[in-house]
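Hello again, I could really use a second opinion on something today. I've been staring at a protein lately and its backbone has me curious. You're getting the sequence in one-letter code plus the fold written as C-alpha coordinates. I'd be grateful if you could look everything over and explain what you see. No rush at all, and the record is pasted right below:
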Amino acid sequence: MSNHGGDRAAAAPAGQNLEYRVAHLQERIAGGPLGELGVRLEVRGESVLLTGTVPSAHCRDEICRTVDEELAGHPVHCDVVVADASSPDRAEDLA
Protein backbone atom coordinates (compact mmCIF):
# COMPACT_ATOMS: atom_id res chain seq x y z
CA MET A 1 0.00 0.00 0.00
CA SER A 2 1.51 3.33 -1.01
CA ASN A 3 1.54 6.59 0.91
CA HIS A 4 -0.52 8.96 -1.25
CA GLY A 5 0.52 12.04 0.78
CA GLY A 6 4.15 11.38 -0.14
CA ASP A 7 3.19 10.91 -3.79
CA ARG A 8 1.48 14.31 -3.91
CA ALA A 9 4.48 16.01 -2.32
CA ALA A 10 6.79 14.41 -4.85
CA ALA A 11 4.55 15.53 -7.71
CA ALA A 12 4.46 19.19 -6.53
CA PRO A 13 6.61 21.60 -8.54
CA ALA A 14 10.04 22.15 -6.98
CA GLY A 15 9.39 25.89 -6.53
CA GLN A 16 6.24 25.26 -4.52
CA ASN A 17 8.04 22.78 -2.28
CA LEU A 18 10.86 25.28 -1.70
CA GLU A 19 8.39 28.05 -0.81
CA TYR A 20 6.64 25.71 1.63
CA ARG A 21 9.94 24.77 3.28
CA VAL A 22 11.02 28.41 3.48
CA ALA A 23 7.70 29.44 5.09
CA HIS A 24 8.08 26.81 7.79
CA LEU A 25 11.73 27.67 8.31
CA GLN A 26 10.78 31.34 8.73
CA GLU A 27 8.30 30.33 11.47
CA ARG A 28 10.93 28.14 13.13
CA ILE A 29 13.49 30.97 13.21
CA ALA A 30 10.93 33.43 14.63
CA GLY A 31 9.44 31.07 17.20
CA GLY A 32 12.35 28.83 18.09
CA PRO A 33 15.27 29.26 20.48
CA LEU A 34 16.72 32.03 18.32
CA GLY A 35 13.43 33.96 18.42
CA GLU A 36 14.46 36.28 15.61
CA LEU A 37 11.57 38.27 14.17
CA GLY A 38 13.81 40.62 12.19
CA VAL A 39 15.01 37.99 9.72
CA ARG A 40 13.29 37.40 6.38
CA LEU A 41 13.67 34.56 3.90
CA GLU A 42 12.69 35.14 0.28
CA VAL A 43 12.63 32.61 -2.53
CA ARG A 44 14.40 33.91 -5.63
CA GLY A 45 14.05 31.29 -8.33
CA GLU A 46 15.82 28.20 -6.98
CA SER A 47 17.82 30.17 -4.41
CA VAL A 48 16.91 31.78 -1.09
CA LEU A 49 17.82 35.26 0.11
CA LEU A 50 18.16 35.69 3.86
CA THR A 51 18.04 39.31 5.10
CA GLY A 52 17.58 41.20 8.33
CA THR A 53 19.34 42.47 11.42
CA VAL A 54 20.30 40.42 14.48
CA PRO A 55 21.88 41.39 17.82
CA SER A 56 25.11 39.36 17.51
CA ALA A 57 27.49 37.66 15.12
CA HIS A 58 26.79 34.37 16.92
CA CYS A 59 23.06 34.73 16.23
CA ARG A 60 23.73 35.55 12.55
CA ASP A 61 26.01 32.54 12.19
CA GLU A 62 23.47 30.21 13.84
CA ILE A 63 20.63 31.40 11.59
CA CYS A 64 22.71 31.19 8.41
CA ARG A 65 23.95 27.69 9.38
CA THR A 66 20.41 26.52 10.16
CA VAL A 67 19.06 27.79 6.84
CA ASP A 68 21.99 26.26 4.90
CA GLU A 69 21.38 22.88 6.56
CA GLU A 70 17.59 22.91 6.16
CA LEU A 71 17.71 23.99 2.52
CA ALA A 72 20.65 21.85 1.43
CA GLY A 73 20.74 21.66 -2.35
CA HIS A 74 19.52 25.24 -2.81
CA PRO A 75 21.86 28.24 -2.91
CA VAL A 76 21.36 30.45 0.16
CA HIS A 77 22.55 34.06 0.17
CA CYS A 78 22.93 35.23 3.77
CA ASP A 79 22.77 39.04 3.91
CA VAL A 80 21.99 39.24 7.63
CA VAL A 81 23.76 42.10 9.42
CA VAL A 82 24.65 42.54 13.07
CA ALA A 83 23.10 45.53 14.84
CA ASP A 84 25.64 48.05 16.09
CA ALA A 85 25.10 47.94 19.84
CA SER A 86 28.22 49.94 20.70
CA SER A 87 28.01 53.29 22.41
CA PRO A 88 28.19 56.32 20.13
CA ASP A 89 31.61 57.97 20.00
CA ARG A 90 30.10 61.42 20.59
CA ALA A 91 26.94 62.95 22.03
CA GLU A 92 23.91 63.12 19.76
CA ASP A 93 23.13 66.66 18.58
CA LEU A 94 19.41 67.21 19.18
CA ALA A 95 19.34 70.85 18.05
